[in-house]
Specification:
Elements lengths: L7 H4 L1 H40 L4 H11 L5 H10 L1 H14 L1
Helix pairs in contact: 2-4, 3-5, 4-5
């Protein structure tokens, strides 16, 4: 599993074991961080699109909950970037429900 590591980390068995153990632990942590980073990215994108429509992110989420609109943040962010007309309709529905 230490193939591709540089220097002694791939040559010496004790260093290789330590390097592989650390790499596996960091890979596990990285998979969790990846999900956190994507959610943060979606939130930033949604908030930026909301601000362009004179609305706030927290108001949008609250209004969507009250209006019964069940879109997750990934879908909302995709809508905000690629389909601004549909996103504006969701914002208007949230505005009315607030």
């Amino acid at each position: 599993m230490a193939r591709g590591f540089r220097g002694n980390r791939s040559k010496l068995i004790r260093m290789a074991y330590g390097a592989v153990d650390r790499a596996m632990a960091n890979a596990y942590i990285g998979r969790k961080q990846k999900k956190q980073q994507y959610r943060a990215l979606w939130t930033v994108r949604i908030n930026a699109a909301c601000r362009a429509l004179d609305f706030k992110y927290s108001w949008l989420i609250d209004g969507m909950r009250k209006a019964g609109i069940e879109l997750d943040r990934k879908q909302l962010a995709e809508m905000a970037v690629n389909d601004s007309a549909a996103f504006a309709k969701v914002v208007e529905a949230a505005r009315k429900a607030r």
